[in-house]
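User: Predict ABC transporter ATP-binding protein's structure from this.
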Amino acid sequence: MAKITLDNLAHSYLPNPAGEDDFALKELNHDWRDGEAYALLGASGCGKSTLLNIISGLLHPSQGRILFDDKDVTHWPTADRNIAQVFQFPVVYDTMTVADNLAFPLRNRGADASYVAQRVQQIAAMIGMEDQLRRKARGLTADAKQKISLGRGMVREDVNALLFDEPLTVIDPHMKWELRTQLKSLHHEFGHTMIYVTHDQTEALTFADKVVVMYDGRVVQIGTPQELFERPAHTFVGYFIGSPGMNLFDADVLGRSARVGGVEVDLGAAYAPQGGKIQVGVRPEFIRLAADGNGVPARITRVEDVGRHKIVRLDVAGREVSAIASENAGLSDDVTAITFDPTGINVYADDWRVSAQGEAAP
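Assistant:
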């Protein structure tokens, strides 16, 4: 297990990058604590896999350093970093049995035979393959092979870090839930430093202690699921986390109030944003429907009943806004406006969250 430090780290796939836009991974300076489980979350192409491959040693950064427990490992080969990595698509030895595939990392390091047998049984139980240990990997389904890859990544107890690069892509939905739960249990039991790359917010939020949200090659927020939901540090975080994502409204902000669509809105706290583009962000859970005309003018365009609640889509000055209503809420054409719960309002200047006056620093 190790603390992982990203020191002035950046990477470009171009030989002579001329500016920031030429970097697939823009400058990062972060410490990731020993023994925590992190998820790298973001859309395709945001730099998640690039960062993971730099940490593992498969890619050498254009600038900066990677440190494990304050030791500079930037130029160390992958084998010397003592990490285990599981890739998006299964990597198994087809001519070996399931048991031999699982045992390979331990035997390769000269582990005692009885310990190897014990760990193989434990991991096989974890991935649900006890009854297939004697079977050759050739001919197994893609999801079965990926379970072997996961198991082989988890079989060693002495690694500095376990790295997962979208490992559940080929796994069926029910097994995804089980394997995420088992990975979480493994982390609680052994305390490995884990880094899990995914574009799926459900995977990230259910797996990780801290979610690292990436956008356009940079880390825009590191936080707990609750922090990401309640106080998104960047408008992308608000959009990407949550279903539906956060609504954004252009606004003029002055102190404790804002003008949205020509209507005065109580912000619940005082703000003094500086920037060119000022917006108010409100998640659908904090949008209230009004039939008395008091609020920002809005018109219901459709209602989606998802069982536990209803997602109400509204037209607000030509833009779609989403609200969450209870399952038994009576909705009609009488709804003519929306209001905001001040406890759920965030203010943004040029896409970055502005702290309320007197708010403690994050």
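The mean pLDDT is 90.
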